[in-house]
Amino acid sequence: MGEDTANTDPDADRTGLETEIARDLRALTAISEQIGHVFARSNSLRPNDFRALMHVATADAEGAPVTAGQLSKLMGVSAPAVTYLLERMIESGHLERVPDATDRRRVHLGYTEHGMSVAAGFFGPLSARTRAALGELPDSDLAAAHRVLVGVTAALREFYAELPESGQAAD
């Protein structure tokens, strides 16, 4: 059982709370990566295959499906490397190319029914555990946590865009 690092002191200073949130996010990232590696290994996927699946899932959830070119930039790999990766993922039944509804020349990447089924089979128990863990919390706490995560995600994306190696930073 992990140590509870949550600060329950109502007088905790803001800097302390921000430090704890940063620590919690690092722990969340670390365990998420470990779970991702187990998923990849159990489904004969390479680490970059799983990274690609995460980018496709995130883009879909945000209502902005990703193209192969965008995936190449997000992953920081060459177009030929993404093409090779996508061919493997399409052949294995995890992903498919989906024509854009408004511009038939554009092709997005999406999960297949098989890919969704594989993901649901593996991550379903995690979803149930997460719901149980959050079940005792009031909606106001969940709304506040969501605002925190949205803010931190925006800060991370802004920071990434400014990094020279991201390929997005201004020259």
Question: Your description of this structure?
Answer:
- The structure is a single chain.
- By secondary structure, the protein is mainly α.
- It has a domain at 18-127: Arc Repressor Mutant, subunit A.
- Helix content is 65%, strand content 6%.
- It contains six helices and two strands.
- The protein has a two-stranded antiparallel ribbon with strand order 1-2.
- The model has no long low-confidence stretch (mean pLDDT 90).
- This is MarR family transcriptional regulator.
- GO terms for molecular function: DNA binding; DNA-binding transcription factor activity.
Brief digest:
By secondary structure, this protein is mostly helical. The protein has helices spanning 14-42, 47-61, 68-75, 79-91, 113-134, 139-162; strands at residues 95-99, 107-111.
Topology:
Blueprint: H1 14-42, H2 47-61, H3 68-75, H4 79-91, E1 95-99, E2 107-111, H5 113-134, H6 139-162
Antiparallel strand pairs: 1-2
